[in-house]
UniProtKB/TrEMBL annotation:
Coiled coil: none annotated. SUPFAM superfamilies: Hemopexin-like domain. InterPro entries: Hemopexin-like_dom_sf (IPR036375), Hemopexin-like_repeat (IPR018487). This is Matrix metalloproteinase-16-like protein.
Length: 178
């Protein structure tokens, strides 16, 4: 009698899980980070299904990131624990450095970070709070809901990123587009 087996999914397959640690968009390419791998989605929506090792392409960047965000100037900040790294494209330029040294009042172990397409500001998410910053790293507000155009509780956000005209928020089993 034949035995039915499920195909084995590996960690470097984007379809092996719907969960991601961090996400950001750089030069119209979206990077999704999970564990020691990252996956890309190009500007045409083409998904690179097989992941690449973070350590192979982002020299000095740790695995299991908490959050990532890319500014309009093309600077990407990666966050892990109480540290952050700064990069341009895939080139890590500095880090690790304490989050508190650059981002006043931003907590450690972030849930997500993103650039909001409607106001161009950086938002950090931790538990049920949004922390809104301008590009100079100055805190503008801390709130449990967005005051910039939509209203939802950020509890359970695992990663967030922006595209040309939308923001995407990943939760455990679904995503939310704004």
């Amino acid at each position: 009698k034949p035995v039915k087996t499920e195909p084995k999914k590996s960690d470097d397959d984007i379809c092996s899980s719907k969960e991601f640690d961090a996400a950001t968009t750089v030069n119209e390419v979206t990077y999704l980070f999970r564990g020691e791998y990252y996956f890309t989605i190009d500007s045409n929506g083409i998904v690179e299904r097989k992941g690449r090792k973070i350590s192979n392409d982002f020299n000095g960047l740790p695995n299991n990131l908490n959050a990532a965000v890319t500014t309009r100037e093309g600077i990407t900040y990666f966050f892990k624990g109480d540290q952050f790294y700064q990069a341009r494209g895939r080139r890590v330029e500095s880090g690790p450095r304490p989050i508190s040294s650059e981002f006043k009042n931003v907590p450690n172990n972030l849930d997500a970070a993103f650039l909001y397409t409607k106001d161009g500001l950086i938002y950090f998410i931790k538990n049920n709070r949004f922390i809104r910053y301008d590009f100079e790293g100055e805190e503008l507000s801390v709130d449990d809901r967005f005051s910039s155009g939509f209203n939802f509780q950020p509890v359970g956000v695992r990663a967030a990123f922006n595209s040309k005209s939308n923001n995407f928020f990943f939760f455990d089993w679904y995503y939310y587009r704004v």
